[in-house]
């Protein structure tokens, strides 16, 4: 599949709310939460006022001029927070485009961007049973910390 990865434009930032919802891991046999869940304070930390900090960065994957995936980072007190210098990462690709390497390509591109901008590491939080754990490991994330349900993973960029 032909796709392009590029920097997300400011007028596209509202799409991050859609991708935030898509990023929610839903275990098999579980009903998806209501879309309004993204309005909760613990979810809004990922998207509220995005673009107004120098640490806010977003890339998108596009197929035939349609945005089908996004990866974004910011320094925030989210589930994957490890310190105040390391951006936390969120990523999502629409279901029909998953399993094609697009998420991996988005991740690799974001890690290159962060390294070029002088960050030493990036973090994320992921449910232990989420198939994406393998993708994160493939691009260099390692388990930094864990609890019963989640891993906090870190990619060292140096």
UniProtKB/TrEMBL annotation:
Keywords: Acyltransferase, Transferase. GO terms for molecular function: acyltransferase activity, transferring groups other than amino-acyl groups. Transmembrane segments: none annotated. Residues 3-158 form the N-acetyltransferase domain. It holds the Pfam family Acetyltransf_1. PANTHER family: N-ALPHA-ACETYLTRANSFERASE (PTHR42919), N-ALPHA-ACETYLTRANSFERASE 50 (PTHR42919:SF8). This is N-acetyltransferase. It comes from Anaerocolumna cellulosilytica. The lineage of its organism: Bacteria, Bacillati, Bacillota, Clostridia, Lachnospirales.
